[in-house]
Amino acid sequence: MIRLGKYGRKIKRNMEENHPARFQELVENKTIVDRLLEREEEIINRKHQIEKELISKYPRPVTNEFLVRARYNQMIEMITEELLQEDIEEII
Fold this sequence. Notes:
The chain is mainly alpha-helical and 92 residues long. 78% of the residues lie in helices and 0% in strands. The protein has one domain. The protein has four helices and no strands. It is elongated.
């Protein structure tokens, strides 16, 4: 059985809640899983691209302090997730 990842589940939930007719159409055509997996892969690729751009714009702190590194990683993750939200809400 194919399992959806984090973004696939978010896309599915968004489709069910905000685009139920389109969601039902994909279910009836038996293409929902393929479309969700395809879109999830696109979003993961976009995520990696965004992360690279952010790390380039905001270089990693040069320190061994765990909390500083953790805050930096959290900042990158929060910005990335915010930027990906539009992609997740896009109709497939």
